[in-house]
Amino acid sequence: MIRPIVKDVFFLGQKSEPAAKQDLSVGQDLMDTLRANQEHCVGMAANMIGVKKRVIIVNMGILNVVMYNPVIVKKEMPYETEEGCLSLIGVRKTTRYQNIEVEYYDSAWKKHRQAYTGWTAQIIQHECDHLEGIII
Predict the structure, then answer these.
(1) Do the Cβ atoms of 136 and 92 come closer than 8 Å?
(2) Does 2 reside within a domain?
(3) Which residue(s) pair with 17 in the sheet?
(4) What is the pLDDT of residues 38-90, one digit of tens each?
(5) What is d(CA 99, CA 18) in angstroms, rounded to the nearest whole number?
């Protein structure tokens, strides 16, 4: 289901709760909502569609990947950048890391540990910040 984008800074500033297998539909809603906004959006966190669960989706070129309970376990090579957000107006400065490793569960509830670099790593970091209530 395509959901409206939340712009309430108070809601977005709250930490998300762990996702469970019962929250798989949140991943599908993120998939549908990202597709509907793909012209100006490359990732989303569940709180952006009004669900306070630890679920994100990241566009990785030809594929959109949903991650349940993602945790960044390794960060290397910090850099300064500017980012925008579908929930906010304008861009803001932030620090990101060129190389990261993330642990997460997929929709079959299989655990993964994967390394990401560059643009994909930046998107994941932005969405994981959302889960912590951090708004750029």
Answers:
(1) yes
(2) no
(3) 53
(4) 998 999 999 999 999 999 999 998 999 999 999 999 999 999 999 998 888 88
(5) 25
| Coil, strand or helix at 105 | strand
Rounded to 10 degrees, the C-alpha dihedral 135/125/21/24 comes to: 80
1 lies in some domain:
no
Active-site residue, 80 included: no
Give the CATH number, domain containing residue 44.
3.90.45.10
CA distances from 132 to 37, 62, 63 (A): 23, 27, 25
- In angstroms and rounded to an integer, the radius of gyration of the C-alpha atoms of the chain is 14
Task: Count the domains in the chain.
Answer: 1
Active-site position among 76, 80, 127, 132: 127
Other Cβ atoms less than 10 A from the Cβ of 78: the count is 9
pTM beyond 0.90, yes or no: yes
> Which H, E and C letters describe 24-89, residue by residue?
HHHHHHHHHHHHHCCCCCCEEEHHHHCCCECEEEEECCCCEEEEEEEEEEEEEEEEEEEEECCCCC
Give domain status of residue 14, yes or no. Answer: yes
Range of the domain at 35: 9-131
